[in-house]
Amino acid sequence: MLRLNWEVKLKHIYREGNYCTDDLANMAINLPEGIVLMYAPMELGYTLMRM
Q1: Where are the domains of the chain?
Q2: Chain segment 17-32, per-residue pLDDT in tens
Q3: How far apart are CA 4 and CA 30, in angstroms?
Q4: Pairwise CA distance, residues 32 & 26, whole Å
Q5: Cα 32 to the chain's mean position, in Å?
Q6: At a CB cut-off of 8 Å and minimum separation 6, what does 50 contact?
Q7: From CA 18, how far away is CA 12, in angstroms rounded?
């Protein structure tokens, strides 16, 4: 893999500029470890639409 011709680009985005990712990370902290199934993710949708 080290011999492959890799092209990597990194871009920093401030937390304030990416509400969706920030909210998902905060939600994940409070979830139990393992697989979590969400049958009604509407609460998350309302949270993410606060932009």
Answers
A1: 15-48
A2: 777 777 778 878 888 8
A3: 39
A4: 13
A5: 16
A6: 19
A7: 11
What's the predicted TM-score (pTM) here?
0.41
Task: Judge whether 4 and 21 are in contact, CB under 8 Å.
Answer: no
Tokens representing 46? 């309302």
- CA-to-CA separations, 16 to 8, 9, 11, 44, in angstroms, rounded: 24, 21, 15, 18
Give residue 3's pLDDT band: very low, low, confident or very high (50, 70, 90).
Answer: confident
Q: Which helix (H) or strand (E) holds 50?
A: none
Residues sharing a CB contact under 8 Å with residue 43, sequence separation 6 or more, in sequence order: none
